[in-house]
């Protein structure tokens, strides 16, 4: 199977099908990336813009990387930033973590505590670049090096930011308490 | 042992984008690939320029963030149409669909409506009588093949009450029918509502509303003076866009003919979205056929597909502002969508086939799956 880099190379020679193949490989992942950060409705509006932007900028793709997904996340992030800038402040989602659904680990621990709010608060206190690296690794399953590609920074910088983000989260009192209780519950069930 | 990464990673679950959203995004890409001259504009340009836009800012293919040079507003490209192939056994000659439509711009005055009535109108009038299906929901299986690649299928359930559910396989549908899984209330509702309005008799109003379901500044329904003022703003915006992008040449001026072409493009595209979204609903089918009958660039032929009587509806290049076409095949008795194929210069052909089954939502939720034809249950 041809790599993404090979397909993008072919597209530069006029093979539109090749670029479409790249999109088909990554559309679900990029769609979810957008939805986690802007909500589903906005993600559906933005996805086409991301593909067009990627197509228009494909000449800048570094073909030494076989996998285009980190690059596509970077294109998507640029579109997200434009989207956020264009939105009235009151329409912005206050925090990306409020968009996540379907899981509440605290329900098995203490129904009176809003786990989502705990994490939202902790993530909000991170520096934006720390949060970006952390969520690219935690949500998009990228390595720190791939997150660096997405964000256009050296791999070492991304690793440092990830380390700082994790440390800050662990140190947040509410998160620390949550982790302690979660792990205690597991221990108690053994 | 749970750590902080575990906590954050478990928050990654998010509601998936709807299948039609992926298709729409691909179509935007196809349109861009087909039109190298397409210019990208600032995201808010169209909304901020003071045009008397008659709709909210909901964007469609080719609108909002992208503006073709000189288009003033974007064009939903031919690529926006997914389509079928199924062209076996075409018989008879094509009939202009718009011969009897309220918004028809073709046909001659000497013809009586009875003599020239579009097959689409004839079929629309009989859909209710021919619809003997039971149930309160439709299972729609779309299988799309792009450029000869392996087809991708999506499985959706459209309940008559507006709820929509989807899954990656037919067997996955029962589990998807939950309150949290309801994807109804989406941006396609407007197209469906207008289609039903067209079925219920107010075709002229429905036609205008369906066109305006794409945000535009064509001034449809406005006075000639107001319309002219809007067009002047479009022309001015195009000039500024050319200047900003240092584009060569001069943008074409908005004219009545160009406005008509764009209106037809929006009408076709939005009507087809309605047809392909909730094809199991006879009112939607009826309304869409009535709407399509008003487009002068659409022709209809009586055909046979797999031994079944069909109508082949062709939207020619004039519906896509000169480049592209879409061919749609529907059942000649029920109007059910069977397939669609779109072609546009330099873009891989997109071929989609449709299978529609009426079901009881409760029975489906309980695990009773419709009996589908080969290859649809994967």
Question: Care to give the gist of this entry?
Answer:
Chain A has nine helices and no strands.
Describe the structure.
The complex is a heterodimer of chains A (190) and B (378). Chain A is mainly α and 190 residues long. Chain A has a domain at 1-93: RNA polymerase sigma factor, region 2, helix turn helix motif (Rna Polymerase Sigma Factor, Chain: A), CATH 1.10.1740.10. Chain A is built from 9 helices and no strands. Chain A has helices spanning 4-12, 16-38, 40-56, 69-86, 115-124, 128-140, 144-151, 155-171, 173-188. In chain A, helix 1 crosses helix 2 (16-38). Residues 92-113 of chain A have low confidence and may be disordered. Chain B is globular. Mean pLDDT of chain B is 72; it is low at 36-94 and 99-115. In chain B, 33% of the residues lie in helices and 19% in strands. With 378 residues, chain B is α+β, with helices and mostly antiparallel strands. Chain B has one domain (14-365). Chain B has a 9-stranded antiparallel β-sheet. Chain B has a two-stranded antiparallel ribbon with strand order 1-2. Chain B has helices at 4-9, 19-34, 45-48, 113-116, 119-130, 173-176, 189-199, 203-212, 224-244, 256-277, 282-292, 361-365, and strands at 39-40, 66-67, 95-96, 137-146, 152-159, 164-167, 298-305, 308-315, 325-331, 337-344, 347-359. Chain B contains 12 helices and 11 strands. In chain B, helix 7 packs antiparallel against helix 8, helix 7 (189-199) packs across helix 10 and helix 8 packs across helix 10.
Keywords:
heterodimer, A: 190 residues, mainly alpha, 9 helices, B: 378 residues, nine-stranded antiparallel beta sheet, two-stranded antiparallel ribbon, 12 helices, 33% helix
